[in-house]
Write a structure and sequence with these properties.
Structural class: alpha/beta
Mean pLDDT: 91
Largest sheet: 10 strands, mixed
CATH class of the largest domain: Alpha Beta
Number of helices: 23
CATH architecture of the largest domain: Alpha-Beta Barrel
Bound molecules: pyridoxal-5'-phosphate
Number of domains: 3
Length: 668
């Protein structure tokens, strides 16, 4: 009895496991494949018009083109660019950055605020600070400082190392440096001393204890520090980063601490050092309602602190959170239900109303939008290595009376399937599939027989899906079968290195082929990366038709001798620095591309990590490793199992491997 139960359990387990291993088959996309395909249809299919924000579109050649600035009409063909880069020896996966898009984003947010300020006759000014934690790559921060010069764009830091970066890079006169994050004496003293370099540094008190350190440091250095208070709002944000605000959030001063802080500064004769009130309710806020309610609470803190006598206050820093529309739906957590202009209007009008009500001068507005500025500017382009083409469109040889009854049953279903009995056939098919797996486990079906049943399963599923598509009431069958009838495309990239948020927080990123968009895609697929981690995959995609997400992406078949390139878009914010070395896949090659009248220029090429570099993070030394291989080779030469020529080749290949790219490369 016991044994029987145990074996039943095991069978159950095995069935579960093997079910997941069942190979998949291609099904036809779109529903009506006879219609002429067009780039317009690809646009709709991949939703590029909604998430592309006019920076990305499909050109007449059926390739994605990048148009950073709508006014200038400059464009570059992303597929041709990729080919050009490969010709130069730059390797896929490639991170392609467009500084022109950064400039467009800086201009856009500044224009939105100028417009809002003019329309409301608001008395204060606007200036942004870029929080470098969103992407600290030197070339990128330098580009932002350069393009932000006309707009007095400042920088924000959230840690000691970031402060040191910001102090070195920020040289725009009158642009702010905002110091957030948890601080110690060293951080605070460095920040205060930077004022003597002419930097406009404001230290934001995130934790009450910091105020004491600031006051002491000010006395020690004999300098008037410029201070901000971060208020802890009760209003919660919304979206994936909702924990950044609310009464129990990590940062900010409670009302009790704010009141004590003001009194403390007053008694030290330093109340006139308090220049700024700050709050931040989290990143990627999807709803304008949350933004408005937190603004109302935050601005009220400003007016109240001012009325308590802190009349040197002149900045309100409303933090980040301005969203990016990753999926074009306008309704999900990866999207937003407002425009950047609405955001600017709401900030300005709420400030104006609440300040006028209390008769307080309008403060200068500071935002710390990071994601908004940098998300669009970089694209990850990678090639597809292969497809799990276990797909069988054609049925296997016909089963005969000599075959196992189960095989005959499947043969029967295949032959007799029609629109009238489709439901019955579907149920029988599911039943037969279960049985086949069990019979194999019990040793009744052999491997060839099991392979036959799988082949027939796919042939029937395929026939059934085609049939169901022409029917009005068979959606549940299509749904049921499509759970398994999709392909896996193996792709040359690492989710963990290049789009970690897709794994960590289920963040959506637009993904699509960057060429062949004049052709109808013929397959549905999920994307698997190079890591051995079963989480290393993308299987949540935008469905522009329904506004929801779907499990698979429509893709083209591979052509022999031709690469198939996909792009993941909007990866400029957070992904690079959060990316990790899972399975020792390192930074990808990166390039900066600027558009010109005659095409483009390659401003920077930043080679990705070599294997040696990645290994050194985990304490392997190039020399010791090569030495170990040399010694092993020497022993084998002595034993006679390796010739000297073979040893030379082996060591050479080993060394080349160490200095090579961590991703897969084409053979010469
Ligand atoms: C992360 C962070 C930001 C940036 O937020 P985005 O949503 O990327 O604009 C701004 N301010 C503070 C304090 C932050 O911690």
């Amino acid at each position: 009895m016991e044994i029987e139960k145990a074996s039943e359990k095991l069978t159950e387990k095995l069935t579960e496991k093997t079910e997941n291993l069942i190979p998949s088959v291609a099904i036809e996309v779109p529903k009506n494949s006879e219609e002429q395909w067009s780039t317009e249809k690809s646009s709709e299919l991949y939703g590029i018009k909604s998430w592309g924000s006019d920076y990305f579109r499909i050109n007449a050649n059926g390739n994605v083109s990048v148009t950073p600035s709508i006014n200038q009409k400059l464009q570059v063909d992303l597929y041709e660019l990729t080919q050009d880069l490969l010709d130069r020896g730059i390797r896929a996966p490639i991170m392609i950055r467009f500084p022109d898009i950064l400039r467009a984003r800086v201009e856009m947010i500044n224009n939105c605020f100028s417009k809002a300020i003019a329309e409301h006759s608001y008395k204060g000014t606007y200036s942004g600070v870029y929080p470098i934690k969103v992407n600290q790559q030197r070339h990128l921060v330098e580009e932002l400082v350069k393009h932000g010069r006309d707009y007095k764009l400042g920088l924000e830091c959230g840690s000691k190392p970031e402060l040191l970066v910001v102090l070195a890079l920020m040289n725009t006169p009158n642009s702010l440096i905002i110091c957030n994050g948890f601080k110690d004496q060293e951080y605070i003293e460095t920040a205060i001393m930077s004022q003597k370099l002419g930097r406009q540094t404001i230290i934001v008190v995130d934790r009450y204890e910091e105020l004491r350190i600031i006051i002491e440091a000010a006395k020690k250095l004999n300098t008037r520090p410029r201070i901000g208070f971060r208020a802890k709002l009760n209003t919660q944000g919304a979206g994936k980063w909702v924990d950044s605000s609310g009464a129990r959030s990590k940062f900010g001063l409670t009302t009790i601490e704010l009141v004590e802080g003001i009194e403390n500064l007053r008694s030290e004769g330093m109340l006139d050092c308090l220049e700024l009130i700050h709050f931040h309710i989290g990143s990627q806020i999807p709803s304008i309602q949350s933004i408005k309610s937190s603004l109302k609470e935050g601005v009220r803190f400003y007016t109240e602190v001012f009325q308590m006598g802190a009349t040197a206050l002149k900045y309100i820093d409303v933090g980040g959170g301005l969203g990016v529309d990753y999926d074009g739906t306008g309704s999900s957590d990866s999207s937003m239900n407002y425009s950047e202009q609405e955001y600017a209007n709401d900030v300005v009008s709420i400030l104006q109303t609440l300040c006028d009500e209390k008769n307080i001068p309008h403060p200068h507005i500071v935002t710390e939008s990071g994601r908004f500025l940098v998300a669009h500017h970089s694209i990850l382009v990678f090639n597809v290595m292969g497809i799990n083409n276990l797909s069988r469109w054609e049925p296997p040889r016909s089963a005969t009376k000599a075959d196992h009854p189960l095989l005959q049953d499947l043969q029967y279903i295949y032959e007799k399937l029609n629109k009238d009995n489709i439901n019955e056939c579907y149920n029988d098919l599911m039943q037969a599939k279960q049985e086949a797996l069990q019979l194999f486990t019990y040793g009744v079906l052999n491997l060839q027989q099991r392979a036959w049943t799988e082949g027939m399963y796919f042939a029937i599923s395929n026939k059934m899906t085609q049939m169901a598509r022409t029917m009005d009431d068979a959606d549940d069958i299509i749904q049921g079968l499509s759970q398994e009838l999709y392909d896996t495309y193996f792709c040359n990239f690492s989710v963990f290195q290049s789009v970690p948020d897709s794994w960590a927080v289920g963040q959506m990123f637009p993904v699509m082929p960057i060429h062949r968009l004049k052709e109808s895609p013929t397959r549905n697929a999920t994307l698997a990366d190079l890591t051995c981690d079963s989480d290393g995959k993308l299987e949540k995609f935008i469905d522009p038709e329904t506004g929801k997400t779907k499990r698979t992406l429509p893709l083209h078949d591979l052509k022999t001798g031709e690469h198939y390139f996909l792009g993941v878009f909007l990866t400029g914010a957070y992904q690079e620095i959060l990316g990790d070395l899972h399975n020792l896949f390192g930074d990808t090659d990166a390039v900066h591309i600027s558009l010109t009248e005659n095409g483009y220029t390659l401003d920077h090429y930043i080679p990705g990590d070599t294997v040696t570099e990645v290994l050194s993070y985990v304490q392997y030394r190039h020399y010791a490793m090569v030495d170990s291989i040399r010694n092993a080779a020497e022993e084998s030469i002595q034993k006679g199992s390796l010739t000297k020529q073979e040893a030379k080749l082996l060591v050479k290949q080993y060394e080349e491997g160490l200095s090579g790219y961590t991703y897969l490369e084409d053979s010469e």
